[in-house]
Structures are given as structure tokens and as C-alpha cells.
Known about the structure:
By secondary structure, the protein is an all-alpha fold. 72% of the residues lie in helices and 0% in strands. The chain folds into three domains: 3-39 and 71-279 and 307-452, no CATH class; 549-718, Tetratricopeptide repeat domain (Serine Threonine Protein Phosphatase 5, Tetratricopeptide repeat, Alpha Horseshoe); 730-808, Tetratricopeptide repeat domain (Serine Threonine Protein Phosphatase 5, Tetratricopeptide repeat, Alpha Horseshoe), CATH 1.25.40.10.
Amino acid sequence: MNSKTDSTAVNSKFKIDNDKSYFDSIAIILFIGLLFTDFIPDFDVVGYTIPVHYLYLSILNLVMGVFIYFNPGLLNTGFFNKIKKSFFIKVYFLFLALCGLSLFFSPNLSLSIVSICYLLISLLTIIHLSILLNNRLYLIYKLVFVVVLCTFFETSIALINFLELLKINANDAYKISLNTGNINIFAVSLNLKIPFVLLGIFTFSGYKKWISIIAFSSSCLILFLNNNKAAFLSLGLIVLLFLAYKAVKTKAYKKIGLVVLLLVVAMGVAYLVTSVDKETSVPTSLVDKASDNTEFSMLNSLDKEESASSRIKFWRNAIELSKQNLFTGVGLGNYQVEISPYDNKLLNNGSVTIHPHNDFIEILVETGIVNGLIYFTLFITLLVINVKKLKSKDTEIQTIALLNLLMLLVYGIDSLLNFPLYQPTVQIGFCIIMIFTLLNQSVAVEESNLLVSKKYFIPSVLLSLALLYFTFEIFKTYKLELEIKNDYALEKHLISADYIAKNLPKYPNINNETYPFLQKLGVYHYYEGNFEESKKVFAESKKINPYSGVEDWYLSKIHAKTNIDSAQYYIKKSFESRPRDLNSYLDLLHISNIKKDTLEIINTNTVFSSYRDEPMNYIHTSNALYNSGYDIKKLNQFIAEGLLKFPQDSLLLERKEMFQKILDVKNGVVTSSKAKVQSVKNDENTAADKRLNNVVNMNIYLQEAANYGAKGQFDLALKNYLLVLEKYPDNLAIHQNIGLCKFEQKKFKEAIPYLEKSLGDPKLNDGKSEYYLGICYLNTQNKAKGCSFLNTAKNKKYPNAAQIIEQYCK
């Protein structure tokens, strides 16, 4: 350094030494700022907290970077010596470098840029906060209390929201997530804080201890109410290991007993709350959506992401994908698109997986096997370093190492089962692990405290500015996505194609469902009747995500107006992209029916049924085959094949009876004159033709109603059921479904006449209509009628009827 630099450095060092309490306070305030991320909502602007949280963290990093730049006394060689001597930091930098290198192999650079921005935000957070806390780990117990307070306020807000929502919608109330996005992320976020809260119980006294006790109790209560198995595993392990450590080191058995008691009490309270809620609240949800007379069950996904078996399937698919690019990977952030050909054969109706629910596998797939091993090595290294520091004679070093190990356990378990790498509220925990491990060095490691020129920190400030720009662009992207989503929900299409074109996002260029924004632009051109422009845009959209099949679906609709062969070609491509998609399946049947292409109809059914073998497939296919002039004898055999698989299905039995009657007429079963036989044949065939044509439309509406009902969109489900009711006013099963939809909407008075109408159907004799009628009357303050219907349901042994009577009819 020159003399001017030396002079500045000396002055800065003097300032740092003399304003120690000031810089201590700044470090604590900025640490609080980091934890404050959990409290920031999406402000109903983007409908998704991740872009908001990363935008906030970018601003926070810029603030920290600028502060450090103007206080260069914080920069000293002692800190950089810690970095140089930390093997795990080198591993982390190598991991990030290979993530960056994967951008050169990325088919969608936009997605890679978004992912690398998120990773770099975590890197800057680690660097900036490490500099601010360097040589300040004597503040550890103040930082612990900050985390305790944060947990106290966070859980208090969450429990207040829970109690308020419990009165309105119990199902939603138990999905406690605050502003983190979902219950899984919130559970991990809490578990990462629990080691600090436990330390507070064992360390603090007075009001600090009581706040720690309340924070621990409320955290455990929320975790038990959320009923998250991975969270239970993490909670059980960190409490067990912490208490075991304290039992060996301090023999503080009273406090250990207190923690166990609090855990048991929280578990008991959660059990009582859920039990009381089930027993005392009038049920307002459909408890049996899979009956023969209700269409909701037809579109339920065969695979749920939450299940362990589905995770294994996702992992297998991811491993298969990784084999295609074992060393280079498919590009950072590109898993969500490149996995589509595999998951399209696993998930129904356009469902997608954004992550494989395992960060180690995701890194392996996106950046190659070498970087996957490096990322895994980072965790092993952090584990070994902190285990060794538990043996230190310095109590403070031991304490920090214990915190690191417990947080690493939580984060590691979540990395194996979920995707914390891109979740900002969980990444805060990872940053704290890295910071504390880096700074938790013995005094001997700090060989020098000479100052470093602030000019070496300029790249950090510039990178903070660049990340602020990109996160703001990402924020605008999700804002547009929410606008489009709301416009779709309104079904008015108030947004124009020109508006989307002018605001077309670059980062990322696809939405949360992996559909390109160009695709949305093409769809809006389609709605506006600008078909030629729509075709051009769809061609560009397919370059971004060639696997969605949506573009081909719309192209089929466009060509159906002029060229049925082209329409069939495109709908077939859409179906090939998503062979489990009901809409593509039905549309391909419909267009093949128009072409009288019975071979394509049979092939389509064979493919779809190989993934989703359901009785309705035989109904849909028989409609198309019959209307295409398929031989009635073969058609009867086709229905018989369906009945071998689903012998009790009422619609198939009805269809068999219908086709058999037509076949009998064709075979001249009527014993009368030849003219009369022909007359009967014609009458029967005409009636059957008309009925089957109507059945085609009815089934389509019912399928759509089922789709909307499965998603909880009961307004849209009702529209379809009412359309069916216009053609089939005497179909009492439809009356029941309409009543159940209105029941779900809590429109009890409106549900009653439909449910009462359904009582006239002898096939609907399982007590369901009576059960829901009883609850509707109870909710409309007519206890006499309510209890009467419930008793009927009880006599028919309908589930839960007896419990409701016990609670409300005594």
C-alpha cells in the first residue's frame, strides 16, 4: 500500500477500535435485517414470496456492501486469512464456479441466470455478514437472543392467524406457513431456529428465559399442528442431540426435564386442538369424493408429490435425465424443463415438478456428477469441522459448533427430501452455518489484522448492484405472471396480447408452471383471433420448452377450422407430449371421430389407458367409436373388456345394456313382420344415436366439472354441472353433485333443494345426501330437520353421521 492508503487504513482501524459498540450495534441490526426476511409478505403483488424475499436480500446486501466500503477498517488480513485456511470455503467456491460453468451448457440461459443470481445472493450474504461479525463472536448470546425474539414474534403471529382462520376454514388453518410459501418451508425455517431457542432456555435467566420457553413451546406446537413428518424427524433429532450434549457437559437435568415437558405438552395441546376441532366443528368439506355417483375423483392425480413413493419416482426420473449429460449437466436451473419428458409420463393433466425434492440430485442433474459430489463434500466438510470444534477447550467455540451442527442436521435432512437451495428463508440458515463456521476460529488462526484497501471490495459492491437489477427484473416477471393468472381466472381476458408483448420477461422466460411467457402471448393472440401471429409465437415458444404440448393443443384448435388433418396432427403431438393429459386425450378422440379414424381412436385409448386405466376411458372411447361407425358387435366386445376390469361400474353396465339392445335389434330379435323389424331397428338406432351423441357432451362436461372440483374451483365445476342438468334434468346424481358443490361453498340454503331432489334416486341410497342435508339444516339453524336427516344417514351407516348426532342432536 502507498502512504496515502496506509494513512487511510490506520485512521479506519483507529475508528473501528474506538467505535466498537457502534460497529457491534450495526452488525446486530444487519443480522436482524437478515432474519426479518421471514416477515416480508408478497404484498399481493406477485403471489409468490421467493422473488420478493430475494429482492429484499439484494437490497440488504447492497446496504451491507456500501457500509463496508465506507468503513474499510472492517477489512483486514485476519479475515482473509480465515478464508484462505478454510477448506470448506474453497469447496463452496469450487461448487459455485462449476455452477457458473454449467451456464455454457445451458439450453435455457435465462433460467440459469435466475438460479446463479439466487446462489450469488447467498454468497454475498455470507461474505458481507462475515466481515461485519469478524472478531465479534463475543456477541453470540446477543445474536442468540435476536433469533429467540424473532422466533417468538414469528410463532405468535402464526398462531394468532391459525386461531382466526380456524373459525372460518379448518382445512386452511392447519396449513401454517406465515410468509414462507408453504408449510414445509415454514417448518424448516422454524427448526433452523430451534437450536438457538434451546440454547436460550439453558443460558438465559429472567424474562429472556421465559421468552425462550414460549418460543420453543409455540414452535413445537406449530410443527405438530402442521403434521409434517420431515419436520418431526428434524425436531426429534436436534432436541435429542442437544439434550444429550447438555446432559454430558453440564448435567443440567432440571432444564433437560423442562424441555422434555414442554415438548410433551406441545404435542398434547396439538392433539387436543385437532381432536376438539374434529369433534366440535360442523364439517364443511366433502369427505367422500370417490363415490360411484360423484365425478370429482376421476381427475385426482395418481401420484402426489408429498408422498415418499412419488419422491422415489422423481429421483429415478432425475437420475435417468442425468445420464444424458453426466459430466456437464443439463444447465443450472434447467431441471424443471428438461425433466418434462420423464415426468409427463408420471403426472396427470399438466402437473409439473420444478424440483426433484432432493438438492443433491438436482445439482447432479443440472451441473454434472463432479459438482454433485463437490456439493455433497461441502456438507461432510462442515460436519467434520464442527464435530472437531466440539472438542475445543473454549466454551464459546463449543457452543457455536453445537449450533452449527444442529442447523446443519436440519438443513441436510431438508436437502435430502426437499429443495432448500433456492428458498430464501431457509438459505438464511445455510448462510448462518457458513458464517459461524468460518468465524469460529481459534485466536491462533488470526495471524494478522493489517487492513486491506477498500478498492478490493469494489467488485462486491458492483455485484450487489447487478444482483439488485436482476432480482428486480425477476420481481417484475412474477408480477406479470400474477396479472395473467388473475386475468385467466376472470375469464374476461382484459389483458391484451400487445400488453404482454411489451412486457415480455427475460428473467425468467417461463412461469412457475414451466410454460414460456411467449406461449401466453400466443394464447392471447389466439383469443384475439390473430391466428397467424399466434402460430409464429408458438413456434418460438416451443424452442424454450418443447415438451409442454400446449402450443400444439392450440394449433390443433386453429387448424380445426380449416384443415382437419392438420388438426389431428397437432393434437396427436400434444397427446404424445403429455400422454396422461385428459384434455388432449378427449380432443384427440373427438377429432379422430370427425375423421372416422377408428384405428387412431383405439390406439389413443390404448396409450392413455396404459397410464390411467379408468372405467370412463371405455365410455369416452365407445362414444367416439360408435359415432365413427364402428362395428356394433366389436363395440359390445370392447365394453365387455372394460367390465372385466371394472365389473361394478354402473356406467359401463348401462352402456353394455344399451349396445346389447342395439345389437339385438340388428340381429332381428323382434318377432314380428319383416317391416316391423326394420322399423324397430331404425327407431332403436335413431334413439341410440341421439342418446350417444348427447352422452359425449355430457361426459366432457362431467370431466371438466371433476377437474375443477378436484382443484377446489367449485364455481367452475357448478357451471359444467348446470349445463349437464339442462339436458338431463332428471339425472338426480347431477343434482347431488350440484348440492355438494354449493355445500363446499358454504351456500347451505342453496344446496338444500338440490340435495333433497337427489333423495328420489334409489341408486343414491348410501346416506350421503341425507348426511349433507343434515349439516346444511344445522348450519341454517333448523335443528329438527338437520337431526332427522342425520339419523337417516346414521341408519344407512354413513361415516361420521353418528359423531355429528352425538355433538349436535342431544
